[in-house]
Amino acid sequence: MKPIALLLLSLILASHISEAQVKDSERFVKPMKLKPYVSGSFGELRSNHFHSGLDLTTNRKTGYRIYASDKGYVSRIKVSPYGYGKAIYIDHEGGYTTVYAHLERYSNRIDSLIRAHQYKEKSFAIELFFKAGEVPVERGEVIGYSGNSGSSGGPHLHYEVRDKASQKPMNPLLFRDDIKDDVRPQIQGMKLYCLSDDASISGKRKDKYVTTVFYDKAFHPKGSTIFTAHGKIGVGVQVLDYFSDSWRKCGITTIDLFVNDTLVYDFKIEKFSFAESRYINSHIDYAEKKRSGKVIQKSWVEPNNRLSLYGKRSPYTTDIKPGDKKIFKYVIEDFNGNRSVLAFTVNGENPPPPPVDKDSPLVHVDYGKSFNLDTLGLKLSIPANTFYTNIDMLIHKDEKEGMMAPVYVIGDNHIPLHRSMSVSVPVPDSLNQYADKLVMAGVSTNGKTYSLGGKYENGRMSTSTRSFGRFSLAIDTIAPTIKLRKAPENNNYSGRQNIQLLINDDYSGIKKYECLIDGQWALFEYDAKNYRLTGTFKHMPFLEKGKHVLQVKVSDNRDNETIKEFSFSN
């Protein structure tokens, strides 16, 4: 082989070896040049989902520069008043996508591109997709500025690393080593569950929750480490984690359960699919969370829980008989390997007296089959695999005083639904004249109602919902409100960068808005959580200095509309 060819071959091999030797923790530039404080960890248990990234605090401020993790191209941009707010997605070589969410604004280059599309579509909310080469970015390039947009609860950056092919989120801590964590997971409590008709714990046919205490380098049930039980039981653990120098509650990475020194259950979250995230409602004790706020992770899997995060596909339940002795031990770790242990013993007890048979008003539903019901005027349609296990459901009609229509009690709101069910109720003759203003209403325990939307057709009101509860009807005839926020004297905005309005609807919610200045569509950003519209003057290319008329139209989800005009100068 010629010397030049050998040289080229050696260079190619060296580049491949160099790439292979790059540590994951050194692969990416950090997205911010701030000392990192984590306020939300990957895999943390959230409402209806696992947290898909890393939340990094920004000193309660917005406007910090956000840097691209590596060379690549913008593959997606989404702007929304909800969810991730202003978000940018960048695809990189090596099979990764990084996501930066809740931004205040984008870099000038990217922002001008988005704004052109917003004016073209006459919409603040927008979603754009790009191909490789259309919007390239360099490693470490400023792509935006940190914010508090969308459903964010405070200024921070939500940062994700995804597998590009599957779009499954991965733990961003795999790609950085600068976040200190020497704090062990905190085991707050444990719970034993009766899972069969003949089951008992401590002589009672009811579940038992116990707080834990820490001593001798381990956690222990408070009071006693020995329990008695009979029949089929399960166990669960309440645990959270902290990072060093932070009071923010975060999540753990692995849970292992041993019984008599045999591993019977293991849970590990390193990567997951968004499509399976809602199964969190089966992974946790959903009813306990609704009742008390305690988040307990169960150590058994219900038949319709399809999470891919369990090592054992039949996580642990056991039949306890008199004379049995079983030693349970939880070993729980966070991402950095900090470990906590909880151990307790369950001894068999004599079975309790059999329960007294009573006629039950409950309707049995098989989780694997679709279910349809037509009774008391109520029509209910539930698709197969809506529940995580078989359930017994209450159906009741209540002619409640002060309501426009009967209240239909459907199920127990402590039971989670994975899919949406269809609910249809008859509209009383006295309400048919308000057909276009009717909403299906949820009814709280104190009698207050809230809108569930819905559709009127042929004398019935129907809606789709993922929650059991109490359902009735209500009317929405009140239009949204519009007012200027912190307007200057004589509406002279010459010293201001923007004009702000507050829009609100007291029932069915804002459906759409439109802002026109001197008859031309103007970009106003919608901050839904603060009911705020903001129009930035420099983002209105047609606007000249002088006097103007701002017309604002806002309608709700029952098409009640308010139109207001404001004269101003700039």
Task: Give a written overview of the molecule.
The protein has 570 residues and is mainly beta. Helices cover 8% and strands 42% of the residues. It has five helices and 45 strands. The strands form nine sheets. Strands 15, 16, 17, 18, 19, 20, 21, 22, 23, 24 and 25 form an eleven-stranded mixed β-sheet that branches. Strands 1, 4, 6, 7, 8, 10, 11, 13 and 14 form a nine-stranded antiparallel β-sheet that branches. The longest helix has 19 residues, at 3-21. Mean pLDDT is 93; it is low at 1-21.
Describe the structure concisely for a colleague.
This protein is 8% helix and 42% strand. It has 570 residues and is mainly beta.
Mass-distribution shape? flat
Q: Roughly what percent helix?
A: under 10%
What would the average pLDDT be, to the nearest integer?
A: 93
Q: What's the main sheet like?
A: 11 strands, mixed
Low-confidence stretches: 1-21
Question: Radius of gyration over alpha carbons?
Answer: 28 Å
Distance between the termini: 75 Å
